[in-house]
Hints:
It is a single chain. By secondary structure, the protein is of the alpha/beta class. The chain has helices at residues 29-38, 62-75, 91-101, 125-136, 220-227, 250-261, 283-290, 301-314, 318-326; strands at 5-11, 16-17, 24-25, 46-55, 81-85, 102-103, 108-112, 143-148, 151-154, 159-160, 169-170, 178-179, 197-198, 209-213, 234-239, 265-270, 294-295. Bound molecules: aspartic acid (ASP). Aspartic acid (ASP) is lined by residues 11-13, 56-58, 87-89, 113, 115.
Amino acid sequence: MNRRILVLHTGGTIGMERSSQGYRPMAQFGTTLRQHLATLSGLPDYDFIELAPLIDSANLLPSHWLKIARELRTHWNRYEGFVILHGTDTLAWTASALSFLFQGADRPIILTGSQIPLLEPRSDAPANLGTALMLASSPASRGVTIFFGGTLLQGNRSTKSSSTDFQAFSSPNVPALARAGIHLPSQPPAPEAVPAHNAIIDTLDAHAVMVLTVYPGLSATQINALTETPSLRGLVLCSYGAGNLPDTDPALLEALARIVKRGIVVVNRTQCAHGPVVHGTYATSSTLERIGIVSASDMTLEAAFAKLHILLALHRDPQQVREQFRIALCGEMS
Ligand code: ASP
């Protein structure tokens, strides 16, 4: 059966060229990509579209997730699979967001990109792109995944873990879905199946969610100054180890309790790449649950951030957001 794939180019190194200011998105990348792929046989048929304007993904805003989602929805019924070309810097953030926007998707949405532009020597783009296209034509690889450096990963469990390796992404709390060697997995495993649910959101406020990393010496005064912005509705706290905060400074916990009372949803995510937050493991985290801070368990920062953004856009009531946050919606936590 001829399964047609849509390639959606959003920007990133894969389609960049050198300029006097460094790499920047090149014009007519679609033509270059077509010429390049035309030399390879055995790839599925595909169409190519671009987001306008193309971005270096370091400039990504939450509103770009909705722009990408709109493109996918517009073309959903005409294609059996989607390959999204994305800059590596925020690729895992977008993969996480799309997993919440397309829960239970019945077809593959595969994000890829490259560390070296397609037209540069030693580029990893041809391997990433060619294999992503082939995987996207397999109905078995439904759901949001990342294919990069020979590895297929669950989108909402992944993080960029190297700025230089060709294998730039990893999923620290779950094994890779598949590895592509000489042979491609004929039935690549897909992320956990969940009931289909499209979260249709019109806007995401870039100022609604903030990330705050705990560090030695963090004070209540600093927390208050950083969180006083009226548009703030959610906070991802990146704590130590199993979810610990200093507990010898009562003002610090009071500042956090005040934020929760203001109606801001505070979630607690560990700074460790591997392992979950477990409130109450140490005395230093036992009060957090009591003051209304929710554990992000073993979610990546990217998944916790995207989940909070999307839940806040769907629900006005902070309590409802907290309840939904605790539930694994699409395999984003163990
Ligand atoms: N800054 C680039 C981007 O994220 C890096 C890359 O694509 O690898 O768009």
